[in-house]
Amino acid sequence: MYTDTDRCLRAARAKDARFDGWFFIAVVTTRIYCRPSCPVVGPKPENMRFYPSAAAAQQAGFRACKRCRPDAVPGSPQWNERADLVARAMRLIADGVVDREGVPGLAARLGYSTRQIERQLLAELGAGPRALARAQRAQTARLLIETSGLPMADIAFAAGFASIRAFNETVREVFALSPTELRQRARRQPGPAVPGALTLRLPFRAPLCPDNLFGHLAATAVPGVEEWRDGAYRRTLRLPYGPGVVALAPRPDHIACQLSLADLRDLSGAISRCRRLLDLDADPAAVDDLLRADPQLEPLVDKAPGRRVPGSADAEEFAVRAVLGQQVSTAAARTLAARLVTAHGDPVADPGGGLTHLFPTAGALAGLDPEALAMPRTRRATLTGLVDALAEGRVALGVGSDWDEARAGLTALPGLGPWTVEVIAMRGLGDPDAFLPTDLGVRKAAAGLGLPATPGALTRASARWRPWRAYAVQYLWANDGGHAINRLPA
Question: What is the model's pTM?
């Protein structure tokens, strides 16, 4: 979008928050870059430059506006909508892969050369993977500076910087303030210096309907791994450097996030997973406008706009849970998953809470004795076939996975039908166009709205909802207002 100067100018003049994260406005006279909705008086058009990423603006020598804080906007919705190389790379960078494995590690995960990755990111985002990762490190550092009482040296390494000098230089360059000055300017007093305990605000594009989002997560929560407590959804996280526990609670203009991490280097990756879990980088205006154009969906959209697709913190975990939930009730699926967790999950400490384990990895479940599972023989074979394929790498469900390849790999496994494959694509991989025409709730809602109820006819009718069919599923499910997944827990 940043190449469409007229459109960018209109968004800037309107202070339209819907475009925050889509592009950034840099002012050549002040050397400052802003989000489109920045409340300050706008500069002359001839003094404005438009960039596709904060990293590109920083690389061009601009520093972040202290008023609108453009580094803190929700991420571009493109990276959740698309499945091409650039989108996959951006999801991996957000997950911290460049900080942990470098650009060669990023390229290896994507199956391309480092030169190809650099070229494509530069062409579309105006910055290479190192610059994009640097911008993310700066934002992580700012979060820690402003929301914790940790020493600056600890913050530097937790944010992913190789040295304190690089940390100081980057913060000064990006924010035009020293780390100490940033902390002094913070509106809220930093919390106690407890390693790993952080309270954050996760932004989103309004509107956001929390009912089905948190209702779904709470209704399907696996005991020991997830719980609803004190108005927040809580769960354990398996992160690269150690375990974590997160509590997420809806607020009118943000998601309140409380993170306890064994290692602060996992902060950026944990935030990325929480944002994917709650679909916080979605563009609800674009989704709802398209779905509202269908007269049969319009009443559902108008009743509760801004529905998100409940995601997952770990796609492999969700795939296992999807198989456990085949042809059984939600309660039965939770019971089966809880038994696996107790027997094979890694224990974690959660003082004052009810979380006890991390969900077991595919590797931990690969040696599972099928006879120990209280499931029909065919479903036991499906589960063991899935965990073996995941453990051996024959099916890849990581953050940067190719959605089409993942679908093909899952479909080739015995016992995984279209419903299971599509629900994994929708909630595990985050494909916004995944669709469930065979789902009983979808078909029942479709029939009630006068839509075709047979899978084939419903699939053909759903073509007008593309590329947002996963969101259409949420609105169709919401037609059953009495179901627990559609209610925000008390």
Answer: 0.91
